[in-house]
Amino acid sequence: MRHTDGVRDATARRLSRLHAALYRATRGRVGTRLVANDMLLLTTRGRTSGRAHTVPLLYLADCETLVVIASWGGRDVHPDWYLNLVAQPTATVMVEDSSRPVVARTAGAAERATWWKRAQAAYPGYRTYQHRTRREIPIVILEPTS
Q: Is 125 helix (H, G, I), strand (E, B) or coil?
């Protein structure tokens, strides 16, 4: 990793924490939209620490099912929140002022193709992110547990 990558990642993490704090403090009145897309807060359990970690993410919805993209800006590694979900698929989402438990799974090939088209239509930057990285960017399906 180059020094600038470390600075970029540290800055992204700080901004993410600030975004999540504003979202929570205002009960979703601030931070629910970014680049004309809806945002949610995803809280996972750290796969090694066991601590709660919360990140703001763009999302797509289909009824009660929510979909998030593990792009991490096109970096060559999966975001920590995705790795946490692979290790422990239960999580919590906050959409506006409502929180609910969810279970996560990575979309299979056919499902991914459908959601990838929708994701790129909602946020064209995903196409750039996919070109930047050698990994296939996972699409994560978040389904309600109750």
A: helix
**68, 9, 61, 65: which is closest to 43 by C-alpha?**
68
CB atoms within 10 A of CB 113: 11
CATH classification at residue 52: 2.30.110.10
Q: Are 144 and 100 in contact (CB under 8 A)?
A: yes
Number of domains in the chain: 1
Structural domain span for residue 81: 3-144
* Cα 61 to Cα 11: distance, rounded to the nearest angstrom: 28
Q: How far is residue 61 CA from its own chain's centroid?
A: 13
**Per-residue pLDDT reduced to its tens digit, 40-92:** 999 999 999 999 999 999 999 999 999 999 998 888 999 999 999 999 999 99
With 0-12 CB in 10 A as exposed, 13-18 as middle and 19+ as buried, what is 58? buried
* Closest to 118 (Cα-Cα) out of 141, 134, 101: 141
Q: If DSSP codes are grouped into helix, strand and coil, which group holds residue 31?
A: coil
Residues 105, 141: Cα–Cα separation, whole Å: 5
